Amino acid sequence: MPLVKVKEKYQVTLPVSVRQKAGVAVGDILEAVAEGNKITLRPKSVIDRELALALADVRKGRVVGPFNSAAELLADLHKRVARQTKRSTRAKRPDATSVSSTDRPAAG
Length: 108
Known about the structure:
- The chain is α+β, with helices and mostly antiparallel strands.
- It has two domains: 8-44, no CATH class; 49-92.
- 38% of the residues lie in helices and 13% in strands.
- A hairpin with a 2-residue loop joins strand 1 and strand 2.
- It is elongated and about 75 Å long.
């Protein structure tokens, strides 16, 4: 079992065999947990919040594509925007039965 020495500023160097076995590289983030007199370091993945939300969408199947070309992607995007625009236009249209006679233009 390799031993490490706590240096000034409480730094330690992980032995090569330990780094390789744990798959730790320079710049990796480690979670440090102290339980009694035992210290455990675990490699952790830190990802951007927006990326995490996007990955959750992918896992739940809320994705489109794949597309064979950029033109195919753009055509699908334009179709979706047109559909969304049509829906929002329909939702904003006033109901014909709710227009009062004072709201109508005078016959002329």
